[in-house]
Amino acid sequence: MKVYKYGANVDTDVIIPARHLNDPSPAALASHCMEDIDAQFAATVQPGDIIVAGPNFGCGSSREHAPLAIKSCGVKCVIAPSFARIFYRNSINIGFPIVECAQAAEEIQAGDQVDVDFSTGVITDRTTGKTYQAAPFPPFIEGIIKSGGLLNSLKERGAAK
Amino acid sequence: MSMTMTQKILARHAGLDHVDVGQLIEAKVDLVLGNDITTPVAITEFEKAGFTQVFDKEKIAIVLDHYTPCKDIKSAQLCKQARDFARKHAITNFFDVGHMGVEHALLPEQGLCAPGEIIVGADSHTCTYGALGAFSTGVGSTDMAAAMATGSLWFKVPAAIKVTLKGKLQPHVSGKDVILHLIGKIGVDGALYQSLEFSGEGVASLSMDDRFTISNMAIEAGGKNGIFPVDEKTMAYIDGRVHRPFQAVEADPDAVYASEVVIDLDKLEPTVAMPHLPENTKTVTEVAGLPIDQVVIGSCTNGRISDLRAAAAVMKGKQVSPKVRCIIIPATQEIVLQAMKEGLIQTFIEAGAAVSTPTCGPCLGGHMGVMAAGERTVSTTNRNFVGRMGDVTSEIILASPDVAAASAIAGCVADPRA
Q1: Is B149 close to A160, i.e. CB distance below 8 A?
Q2: Predicted confidence (pLDDT) per residue in B181-201, tens digit
Q3: The complex's ipTM?
Q4: Which of A15, B82, B116, B118 is most enclosed, with most CB atoms within 10 A?
Q5: The CATH fold of domain B272-410
Q6: How far apart are CA B311 and CA B306, in angstroms?
Q7: d(Cα B157, Cα B24) in Å, to the nearest integer?
Q8: CATH architecture of B5-263
């Protein structure tokens, strides 16, 4: 539940540098996650930890490898005031939760212990005792996340052969 | 109810008379694109989900362009996976080494994008085809898999920013300067979740290659798409390339825009973006003289024939500085041939530049021009993020072909008008 904190415009090139895109296996992506912005991240991150960052998180390339790398590290979610739109789509499509909340993103500090309740959108900083309310997903998008991603939701609907 | 160009295209493809900003819709797509990095991930997801058939083998384009000709064994495996899938499903528009080009230069050239169409691509620069009056946008690999299986995709209808262009570009100022200037003005998230809709009398003076460059970098302002009105130049470009019916759209005169930005082309200076964000713009005169180690001219942003002509005009009869490695990458095979016919390749080689087969290569630090620690490149590509073209301490300055060519000769950032 520990928080890793980064600034604005964290781009997909620092989340997973292109030199590592020649191996898209989850383990390989996880081992290089955040390498160019935080060389210690991949070695120290624990399952359940949370990334908190500034606006426009995930800008740049369309590489789904970026949310995949973060998800494969066991990170529970990313909290930011805003996300680059392709990163936003990709996260929802692979069933990885992202949370838009400007106040939480600003106030929560690196190392804080934080809980997120996805069903209510309530973020609790146990270190400071403060709580925050994130913007809820529209029902359509919540449906995709609940199905475990876009392809699962399409299969449930019998949308293709 | 009035609509923007983007709203009209989305509404038609969703089978609706009208769509509102913020509405979530499911729309049919006319083309689904992927490359050698994103397609393998899409194939894995497609097969894992149990899909066995693509929706239309003629409406999928797979272009092996990022790490090709393959730079290492792992990238060769990725290409093989994409190649095997393309053959298995008899994908019509599969482009391998010898036929491929940088995808966003290749697809319009091959007539695969037309006004009024929806094109989605598992590559962020898919927004390039907005230059043709299409709605095109970058998506991820799972989206690509879903679109390959079903022929449709979910979208949120974006609000639009109207970008009004006035006047006419001056010598040595091009589409790259327009888009860098715009990103500098509104920021890398200035168009987040929004559409950039270009308009105004200045549009007419822009060549198609200028428009491709401008739409290409809409994503660098966070934009969902960047779309141009369809005019005589658009129609002349697609004449002989597009052999199917299409329906161009126009924005309603009373369409609603969230905001408006006006750019006076007459006053625009050659513009560069300093490390490490495309919004860190300066006029070239402000940073001229900064020493550099490498120049890259190419990419989906600036590897087209007009770009090579502009660079060759600056370099003709001169020599690349001994301090600089200059790498020139025509974006497609057709562009290579045209550049040969016009003597541009000879100009580059005589000047001491290296000329490469088409590839995305150095733009994403893949191969063909990766930087060592502390080095600096002037590049006509689209991103100057930390570590994008090599070591984390290397630097990229984004610029037009004119500025890049002048810098290659001078050995430092240089003004092509000087």
Answers
A1: yes
A2: 999 999 999 999 999 999 999
A3: 0.96
A4: A15
A5: Aconitase; domain 3 (3.30.499)
A6: 9
A7: 6
A8: 2-Layer Sandwich (3.30)
